[in-house]
Amino acid sequence: PDIIYRIVDCLVNVFSCHGYAITTIEGIGSKKKGYHPVQARLAQFNGTQCGYCSPGMVMNMYSLLEGKQVTMKDVENSFGGNICRCTGYRPILDAFKSLAVDSSEDLRKKVPDIEEMHKVKICERNGKICTGNCSVDDGHNGESHNKNLLAQANAPVHIKLAKDVDWYKVTTLQDIFEIFDKINDAPYRLVAGNTGQGVYRIEEDIRYFIDIGSVGELKTTKMEPNLVVGAGMSLTETMEMFYTLSAENSKFAYTKVLADHIDLIANVPVRNIGTIAGNLCMKNNHNEFPSDMFLMLETVGATINIAEEGNKIVKMSLLSFLDLDLKHKVIHSINLPELDSSYHVRTFKIMPRAQNAHAYVNAGFLFKLKINENGKVLTKPTIVFGGINPEFVHASNTESYINGKNLFDRKVLKTAMKILDAELQLDHVLPDASPAYRKSLAEALFYK
Q1: What topology is assigned to 220-336 in CATH?
Q2: pTM for this prediction
Q3: In terms of Cα–Cα distance, which of 174, 193, 282 is closest to 233?
Q4: Could you tell me which Pfam families the record lists for this protein (predicted)?
Q5: Does 2.70.70.10 match the CATH number of domain 157-216?
Q6: Fold of the domain spanning 343-447
Q7: pLDDT at 10
Q8: Structure confidence by residue, pLDDT tens digits, 345-360
Q9: Model confidence at 421: pLDDT above 70
Q10: Residue 284 — φ and ψ, nearest 5°?
């Protein structure tokens, strides 16, 4: 089946689009051809004004409507990556919420007959408003044409971008290591979603770009009995898989907590193409980066698999990964353990706005508790913070103190807070919030 998703066009390399079928605002409707209902609805609710943000808003909603029943909550959660400086968002949200299956009666009353108000495309087959779902007859035999396009899209590619710059698209791990052998010590960059460029700018002297977005081995998920998640999976794919798994397997019920946290990372278009490996690579290269993926995985005791030359897969802890030189290595997959109901997982992210922002402070907690014994901590807990300083990961002293004690004892909690206060040594790098504020956040999250 086709996979339809929104992307941020300013972050996606043109050469990564090989194999994509791209639809832009001009492709869904115009004054000449007739407007798509999403376009007409936005105009009718006075959501266009200066118009600069309108194409992005419309295409975001258009793809959101593809193949699913959209609720008003879905609409609210899907526009964190779109900026409007005119309308204050209310007319835009109202317009798109009116298209939701659970739209309020007040919104529906505001919708006139848009066929009369605007030149809306009418389907030639059924005489109803066009939904944009009909395939275009381009003169090709559909099935054979699609197979040919698919074969071309999945084939390796080598493009000479400049005298000293090459672009490779690969489809297997072996392809990657063959290129590594060929380029020796020349500077290179592995490319998947390329969303990290929105955080840290790309180096100027890269000579080889290797597109690994089509390497199937990096997108495989399996049970062994631990859960092995391909590091090339997008954050959206990972989030959806976690929601499904948490409902089906009690040993992985905690993955719902992880999925809820992933929903706080960046915005929908970024999560659609940004990968687990890409997020972890940024943490490896920039230890100060408050990576939510690293924090969540370290909280639950996950380990990481690194592919090396000679078909070697090396398993290591995430803490060891932080110091690993990734040259001529590939992040292959992540191992997540089974956790029974005695384990309690909580993660938090405090950020300046509800969507599309880095954390001031993020935190993860894993406690194995005996609830009927006043919350006795049965094993050494995990207490992880991000946004403290580049070297800080675990509140190790606090973890050691709490082990074996009753968590709900006020004296224990008071002492634990003092120990935590002493080991939280925050740096101050503008434009980060002040150390005092971030420290108070971290302590409040532990208390919570």
Answers
A1: 3.30.465
A2: 0.90
A3: 193
A4: CO_deh_flav_C, FAD_binding_5, Fer2_2
A5: no
A6: Enolase-like; domain 1 (3.30.390)
A7: 83
A8: 999 999 998 888 999 9
A9: yes
A10: -65, -45
